[in-house]
Amino acid sequence: MVKLNRIYTRTGDDGTTGLVDGSRRAKHDPRMEAIGLVDEANSAIGLAAAALDDGENAATLFRIQNDMFDLGADIATPGEDFEPGEMTLRMVASQTQWLETQIDALNDRLEPLASFVLPGGSEAAARVHVARASTRAAERGVAALADAEPVNPAALSYINRLSDLLFVMARVLNDDGRADVNWVPGQNR
Fold first, then answer.
1. Residue 127 belongs to domain spanning
2. Does the pLDDT at position 177 exceed 70?
3. SS3 sequence, 69-137?
4. At residue 151, does pLDDT exceed 60?
5. List of residues 6+ apart from 12 with CB closer than 8 A
6. 83 within a domain of the structure (yes/no)
7. CATH at 68
8. pLDDT at residue 162 tops 60
9. Number of separate domains in the chain
10. Could you report the per-residue pLDDT of 59-78, keeping only the tens digit for each?
């Protein structure tokens, strides 16, 4: 359990941040960038959840927010041992599998796409689309980190699948896709 007595420590005043293993990284380091992007995506998911008036989708987003903290902790733990341990929190395949189950259940309600969908429709759907786009940015940050140093493959799978879930959820929130706004190529030429 995490216990925070003080919010400020002054240890980051030199432009570095501490990681789980005690090492310090520059605040602009790719690992710190990935952690920050995951945090931004989690905040966007929270904003989307606040706009929902249905308990089921909100509960899904709240569960995802908790997993996003797990993801941040995983990324904040450098190294090549990706097995969860007593003192090491790592993403696991079952978290991604849960997302896939949710995607399948939501997608069963929808007609197949006939066009790309503009990120809008209802306010709730639009907020979920913002969360999806933010999640894609976080995925790019985690992938960039993975190019530079080892990253848990389960973390990469999770963040990739999460944006898929958010896309399908946005469609469900648009009256099961009936209120989606379709892209019309070249419409305004």
1. 28-178
2. yes
3. HHHHHHHCCCCCCCCCCCCCCCCCHHHHHHHHHHHHHHHCCCCCCCCCEECCCCHHHHHHHHHHHHHHH
4. yes
5. 27
6. yes
7. 1.20.1200.10
8. yes
9. 1
10. 999 999 999 999 999 999 88
Gap between the Cα atoms of 83 and 88, Å rounded: 8
Whether residue 116 is predicted with pLDDT greater than 80 in this model: the reply is yes
Q: Name the residue among 120, 128, 110 with its Cα closest to residue 54.
A: 128
Provide the phi-psi class of 177: left if phi over 0, else alpha when psi is between -120 and 50, else beta: left
Angle between helices 55-75 and 93-107 (to 10 degrees): 150
Q: CA torsion, points 20, 24, 29, 30, in degrees to nearest 10?
A: -20
The Cβ-side half-sphere exposure at 169, using a 13 Å CA radius, reads 32
Scanning the structure block, which residue is given the tokens 């995607």?
A: 103
Across 131-148, average pLDDT = 98
Q: Answer yes or no: is pLDDT of 5 > 90.
A: no
